[in-house]
What does this fold into?
Amino acid sequence: MVDDAWRALADPFVDGAYATVKGQVRTYVLHQQLLRHLPPPPASVLDVGGGAGHQSLPLARLDYDVTILDPSTAMLARAEDRMAQEPDDVRSRIRLVRAAGEAAVEATGGRQFSAVLCHGVLMYLSAPEPLLEVLCRCVEPGGVVSIMALNAGTMAVRPALEHRWADALAGFDATSEIGVLGASTRGDTVEHLSELLHRGGVEPRAWYGVWLFSDWMDLPVAGTDVEAVAEVELQASLRDPYRQLSRVFHLIGTASS
It folds into this structure.
């Protein structure tokens, strides 16, 4: 089994990052974007690096058949905690598998899925190619691949807004940074990941922004109209130039039939 590198970060990630305004916006915006492309339920969904199920649990509530694959025992334990609060029929539609994303084919017995999600995972890898190749192998013909990755084109923004001008200057050419959880993160571009999907037999269909305004502001949950923020972010994610300036991007592709 793989080491649990996320053990120390599981609680800050689930109880901290996802509970913030920004975390709630991420879940909502990605969900709305996904619903534009997913086949109807009860289609099968593989959530690679799905952690505590924030993105796939709402899909199980909509009658999708969900498999959450994650290398972290601690993150999957948090998924179990959240599943325990769901009705029996929702729990019956969720399967938990502990494995690294690169081992997804073997860990799922070679099964192909109607949709394969990989959100917020590539940024923690040294290169995207190995995992992208596996994602393309896990999706069935005509199925959907959904990727959320750090936008390499906006790395100068955060340090500039924090008045770290030397870091901002370096950010124009940077490919990595230290993320909000203190871990090193690596950026990608829509163009590069689209090419990798194409090589794997998955044709890019659409891309969206995620986190524009709320990423650059410290919005307290108390006193913030989270629904209003999320609606503004959703509209920004759908159109230029706003989506180009987003902190991360969401890329959707369809596997060749």
The radius of gyration is 17 Å. The longest strand covers residues 139-150. The longest helix spans residues 21-35.
